[in-house]
Write a structure and sequence with these properties.
Layout: H1 16-27, H2 32-36, E1 42-45, E2 62-74, E3 81-87, E4 92-97, H3 101-107, E5 113-118, E6 120-123, E7 126-130, E8 133-136, H4 137-142, E9 146-149, H5 154-158, H6 163-174, H7 187-192, H8 198-206, H9 211-243, H10 254-262, H11 270-284, E10 290-295, H12 301-314, E11 318-322, H13 326-342, E12 347-350, H14 356-367, E13 373-376, E14 390-395, H15 403-410, E15 418-423, H16 429-435, E16 440-444, E17 455-460, H17 464-476, E18 480-484, H18 496-509, E19 517-520, H19 526-537, E20 543-546, E21 559-564, H20 572-579, E22 590-595, H21 601-612, H22 616-627, H23 652-668, H24 676-684, H25 688-694
Parallel strand pairs: 4-7, 10-15, 10-16, 11-13, 11-14, 12-13, 14-15, 17-22, 18-20, 18-21, 19-20, 21-22
Antiparallel strand pairs: 1-9, 2-3, 2-5, 3-4, 5-8, 6-7
The structure holds adenosine-5'-diphosphate and magnesium ion.
Residues 301-302, 396, 553 line the site of magnesium ion.
C-alpha cells in the first residue's frame, strides 16, 4: 500500500476532521487517492478582469476588480439578505447574499480594493451577482491564472465547503511534502502512447499551469479509464479463445441446404449472407462461438438465427432461443414453427406461464431429443430445464438481459454450447466493443430490398382525430395499425386508465363490426396474449391498442402505422424500437408521434431527431449526447458508469489506443512480468475483482 495515497483525508492540512467528514458523506471521499480522483469539471481563466459595462446575458463566470461602497441588510428572518453595492470606478453592480450573511459582513471592508468572482444574473433588466467569491487583490496575484472548478452539493455550500475550499485543499495535497504517486504503466507504454507521468498528471489537472497541461493530464486519465474499462473484457476474450474448445460442426448441412434451396421465403441480403459465413466459420473452428449480432430493427436477424439453428440440428444438437418478453417468445414460436414444419423440425415453447403438465411433456421431449429448438423467456434458464445435448444458445434482444443470465443458459450444455446474442439496441460500434467486448462482433448493416423509409411526423394531441381519420384511410387500403400508450409496464397498475381510456375512444371512432380494435398489455393471461397476437398477425385485427409490451421484436409486416401517444415520455431508443414495428413490409409505413404542447427542450430534441432520421445508429449518437451512455440499456453492468472523464462518443480514438495497448500487453507479457506496477495496482483497485466476474 502506498502510504501517501492511502492516508485519511482528515490529516490533510486545511481540511480537518469536520470538513473531512463532510467530504466523506457528501462525495464519498476518504483517502488522498479519492481526493486526487475528484477531478474538476471545468476551469476558469482568472487572468482576465471584466468591466461591469461588459456584462450581458451571455456572461458566464467572470471576475471584476473594484470596491464595495455600500452595505445593507434587508428583510427579516426568511427574507433576510445582504445587499452590497460594488463599483469598478465606472459603474455599479449589486451583490447579494442570502446565506452566511454574518460571516460575509465581518469580512467586508468598505472601500478596500477587492476582486469579486461569480456569475451575473439579471433582475428587471439590471445585472446583479449573488454569492460572489471575494478575494483581496494581493491574494489574487499569488494564485494561478487557471482555476479548477469542482462539483459540490447543496449541503456542502451551506457548510462553506465550496469549490474554492476544495481548490485550496487540492493545492495542499498536490504540494504536500510527502507527495508520492507511483507510475502504473511501463515506461515503454507511457512513451508509446504519449502518457505523461501519473504524478504530474494529478498536479496538472488540479493546478494547471496552462491549457496545454490540462489537455495532457486529461488525456492521461481518459486513457487510464478506457484501459481499465476494456481490459477485463479483452482479457476474457483472449482466455476464452485459448481455453474453450467448442463443439466442432461439420460444414455438411442437409436441413440447412434443403431449407435455403426450397423454403426460404425471400433471398437473403448481402449482409445476412456475410454474417452467416462468419457464424459458420466459428461453428466449424473447433472453438466455442461467442458472437454478438447487431442489426437495426427490421434488418432480419431472426432468419439468420433460424438458419443457425438448422446448422446445429444438422450436426445432431439442440438449440434454444431466449427472448426478453413473453409476447416476443410467443411470436418467435408461432413464426418459426411455420418455417420449421417445412423441414420437419420440432419446436417447443416455454414461458413463465407454461403449465406444469405442459412442462412435463416438454422436459421429456427435450431430454429424449425430440424437440430440436426450445423458444422461451428467461424461464429457460431455470435449473429444471435440461436438454439432451444443447449445442447452440441464441439470445434475442440481448440488451434486456444481464450477463449472468447469458452465462446461466450457456451452462446448460454438457459441452460449451455456441452462443449467438442478438441486439437491435443501436449503440455505436465503440460502445458495443466495450460493453460486449468479450464477444466477437457481426453486424447486419443492410435492410432487405424494397423497404420504403418510414415517414415520421410529430403532431400535438389536438390533431388526434385527423390522425385517426388518416388511419381509417389506410385501414381501407388493407393496412393495420398500432396505437401505443406510455408508462404501462407490467408493474404500473396506476396508469391502466390511459390505455383503457384510449381504447374506449378508439372503439368509439372505429365502431364494431366495421372495425376490429383489440387491446394488448403485459397483465393479460398468456393465452389471451397469444390469441391477440395471432389475430393481429393474421390480419383479423385492424388496430392493436397496446402498451410498450410490443416494443421489442414484434413482427407483423402488414402493419404500416405506428401511433405513439405521449411520445415525449419515451426515450429515443424506445421510440426507435417502437417505430421499428412498422416498415417491415413493402408498403409505405408511417409513424406518428403525438405529444402535448408543453415540451421540455430535451423532449423537443428527441421528437425532432425521430422526425429527421430513421437510422438507429444516428439516433443512438444523439441519445448519448442527451443522456450520456449511463442510461443506455445494458451499460450499467459493464463499468461504463465508472468513466469520469472519458466519453465513448467523443473519445473513441483514445478507446482505440487503449485497446491497442491492452492487446500488446496481453500478447507480449501475459504474466505482467515487465508490468509489475500495473499488476500491483490492479490487485488493489477496488471493484476490479468484480469486473472479472462480470466478464
Ligand atoms: P429484426 O432484425 O428486427 O429482428 P426480423 O428478423 O423480425 O427483424 O425481420 C423483419 C422482417 O423482414 C420479417 O418480416 C422478415 O421475414 C423480413 N426479412 C428478413 N430478411 C429478409 C430478406 N432478406 N428479404 C426480405 N424480407 C426479409
Ligand atoms: Mg427481432
Amino acid at each position: 500500500m502506498n502510504e501517501f495515497l492511502s492516508s485519511d483525508i482528515k490529516f490533510l492540512k486545511g481540511l480537518g476532521p469536520v470538513r473531512a467528514e463532510i467530504l466523506n458523506k457528501e462525495l464519498g471521499l476518504f483517502t488522498f487517492e479519492d481526493l486526487l480522483h475528484h477531478f474538476p469539471f471545468r476551469y476558469v481563466d482568472r487572468s482576465k478582469f471584466y468591466k461591469i459595462r461588459e456584462i450581458d446575458h451571455e456572461s458566464s463566470y467572470i471576475q471584476l476588480k473594484g470596491k464595495i461602497i455600500r452595505l445593507q441588510e434587508l428583510g427579516d428572518k426568511r427574507s433576510r439578505r445582504l445587499l452590497a453595492t460594488f463599483s469598478d470606478g465606472e459603474q455599479q453592480l449589486e451583490l447579494l447574499w442570502f446565506k452566511g450573511i454574518k460571516w460575509i459582513k465581518s469580512n467586508i471592508k468598505i472601500g478596500e480594493e477587492i476582486v469579486i468572482f461569480g456569475k451575473p444574473s439579471f433582475y428587471r433588466g439590471k445585472a446583479n451577482m449573488s454569492h460572489p467569491e471575494l478575494d483581496t487583490v494581493a491574494n489574487r496575484q499569488k494564485s494561478a491564472p487557471l482555476e479548477a472548478v469542482y462539483h459540490t452539493t447543496e449541503m456542502m455550500k451551506t457548510r462553506r465547503v465550496e469549490s474554492k475550499a476544495i481548490r485550496q485543499v487540492m493545492t495542499n495535497l498536490v504540494n504536500h511534502t510527502n507527495y508520492n504517486v507511483p507510475e502504473i504503466f511501463s515506461e515503454e507504454m507511457c512513451q508509446k502512447y504519449k502518457l505523461i507521468p501519473r504524478a504530474k498528471a494529478f498536479k496538472y489537472i488540479h493546478q494547471p499551469p496552462s491549457h496545454r497541461h490540462i489537455e495532457a493530464a486529461q488525456y492521461r486519465f481518459k486513457f487510464e479509464e478506457l484501459f481499465f474499462l476494456q481490459l477485463p473484457f479483452i482479457n476474457q476474450k483472449v482466455n476464452r479463445k485459448e481455453a474453450a474448445t467448442g463443439i466442432s460442426f461439420s460444414s455438411k448441412n442437409p436441413k440447412f441446404e434443403d431449407f435455403v434451396t426450397n423454403h426460404l421465403p425471400f433471398s437473403l441480403t448481402g449482409a445476412q449472407e456475410r454474417v452467416l459465413r462468419e457464424i459458420k466459420t466459428d461453428l466449424c473452428s473447433g472453438q466455442q462461438m461467442n458472437r454478438l449480432l447487431q442489426g437495426d430493427v427490421g434488418s432480419g436477424k431472426t432468419i439468420v438465427a433460424f438458419l443457425n439453428v438448422m446448422m446445429a440440428v444438422d450436426n445432431g444438437y439442440q438449440a434454444s432461443l431466449m427472448a426478453p418478453t413473453e409476447i416476443l417468445a410467443i411470436q418467435h414460436y408461432i413464426g418459426l414453427k411455420e418455417l420449421a414444419e417445412k423441414i420437419d423440425l420440432e419446436i417447443g415453447l416455454l414461458t413463465g406461464s407454461t403449465t406444469t403438465k405442459q412442462r412435463r411433456i416438454l422436459h421429456e421431449k427435450l431430454q429424449n431429443g425430440e424437440i430440436k429448438l426450445l423458444v422461451g423467456t428467461h424461464a429457460l434458464i431455470e435449473n429444471v430445464v435440461q436438454f439432451q445435448n444443447l449445442g447452440l444458445v441464441i439470445i434475442d434482444e440481448q440488451h434486456r438481459f444481464g450477463v449472468a443470465q447469458r452465462a446461466k443458459l450457456q451452462d446448460k450444455g454438457k459441452e460449451s454450447p455456441h452462443v449467438l446474442v442478438m441486439t437491435a439496441t443501436p449503440i455505436p460500434r465503440t460502445l458495443a466493443m466495450s460493453v460486449y467486448g468479450d464477444l466477437d462482433y457481426s453486424v447486419i448493416d443492410e435492410m432487405p430490398a424494397g423497404r420504403k423509409a418510414i415517414k415520421t411526423a410529430h403532431r400535438f394531441g389536438f390533431a388526434r382525430e385527423k390522425v385517426w381519420q388518416f388511419m381509417k384511410e389506410e385501414i381501407a387500403r388493407g393496412r393495420q395499425a398500432y396505437v401505443v400508450y406510455p408508462l404501462i409496464e407490467e408493474s404500473e397498475t396506476l396508469h391502466y386508465k390511459d390505455l383503457n381510456n384510449g381504447y374506449d375512444e378508439l372503439l368509439h371512432f372505429f365502431p364494431r363490426p366495421e372495425y376490429q380494435v383489440e387491446m394488448l398489455h403485459g397483465k393479460m393471461k398468456p393465452a389471451d396474449k397469444e390469441a391477440k397476437m395471432r389475430d393481429f398477425a393474421a390480419g383479423k385485427t385492424n388496430i392493436l391498442v397496446s402498451t410498450t409490451v410490443i416494443e421489442v421484436g414484434i413482427n407483423v409486416p402488414n402493419a404500416s402505422i405506428m401511433i405513439i401517444e405521449s411520445a415525449e415520455k419515451f426515450g429515443l431508443s424506445q421510440l426507435h424500437q417502437l417505430r421499428g414495428r412498422v416498415g417491415r413490409g413493402a408498403e409505405q409505413s408511417y409513424c406518428i408521434l403525438l405529444s402535448s404542447k408543453k415540451l421540455s427542450e430535451n423532449g423537443k430534441t428527441r421528437l425532432k431527431a425521430m422526425v429527421n432520421t430513421t437510422s438507429g445508429f444516428e439516433l443512438s449518437e444523439i441519445d448519448m449526447q442527451l443522456r450520456g451512455f449511463g442510461d443506455i440499456a445494458g451499460t450499467r453492468q459493464s463499468g461504463l458508469d465508472q468513466l469520469k472523464l472519458a466519453s465513448l462518443s467523443s473519445d473513441a480514438h483514445i478507446a482505440d489506443e487503449a485497446r491497442k495497448a491492452i492487446v500488446e500487453l496481453l500478447t507480449n507479457d501475459p504474466d505482467y512480468t515487465h508490468h509489475q506496477s500495473l499488476k500491483h495496482f490492479m490487485k488493489n483497485k477496488s471493484g476490479y475483482k468484480d469486473w472479472e466476474k462480470i466478464a
